[in-house]
Amino acid sequence: MGKEKLKSNYWFDAEYDGIKLIESGISNPEELIENTIREKTELIPIEAVLGGKMHFGNIQVLSSEWLIAEFDDGHVQGRGIYEYTMNNNGELEFKLLNSIVPE
Q1: pLDDT of 3 over the 50 cut
Q2: Is residue 90 part of a domain?
Q3: Which one of 4, 39, 49, 64 counts the least CB within 10 Å of its CB?
């Protein structure tokens, strides 16, 4: 029986999906993507209520182009699918593609 590689993320393989980031000198693409979007709370499509502050919770990188993220402020919550790309300056850019938010 051979050794099996345990994966914490079924959808994202850094050696395949993250190859462009690795080739640009980033050793952990998934961590970089998650940490970068966490700083961009302006991408959350709903406003906080009752004095709360919106933040990202669970984030799952899905491929070399997309991720899904939960967000909430402790009172309202939602989920969004985001597209990400690396621009010519080596910075990650994100775009909200679709979301599920309270009506």
Answers
A1: no
A2: yes
A3: 4
